Amino acid sequence: MNKKTYNLIYYDNPILKIKCKRIEKLSGEDVEFANILINLMLKYDGIGLAANQIGDNRCIIAIGGVDPLKSPAIFINPTIIRFLEPIVTFEEGCLSFPKLYLSIDRPEGIIVEYYDINFKKQTLEAHQLLARVLQHEIDHINGIRFIDRIPETKLENITSVLESINRRYNG
Which residues have a Cβ under 8 Å from the Cβ of 124 and sit 6 or more positions away? Predict the structure, then answer.
């Protein structure tokens, strides 16, 4: 049996705008995929990676290397149930947008519900960088790219950078 190979997906691939499908029952294939997601996140020196960033539409994200998550963790069907103030501006990058960094406004904290790798329901209150990474990756699985979070006027200023990413990584 041939195993599917996964690679990083870059701007302007349409899968980055598609809302991922929730997992109703965890399969062995889902667990195997979650491990692939973690391995690719680490390979690309990321601190977060969403399934659609490697061409899959499962509602799974991986996060690691962010306090208090020193080891990589899997979040299945993550949903933000509460945003915690204040709103803070911080520079973000994204593996699907190489070398592009943008100042993004996001709540400093969140409460998120998700299923862990054993498909046990969990609730996590996250602050600072962990909250930001969770929001960024949850945006991905909802078809929202970080460039969708900036004002239209700023988007116009980075058009040439986006075109360059598209040419370089998508041929």
Answer: 111, 112, 114
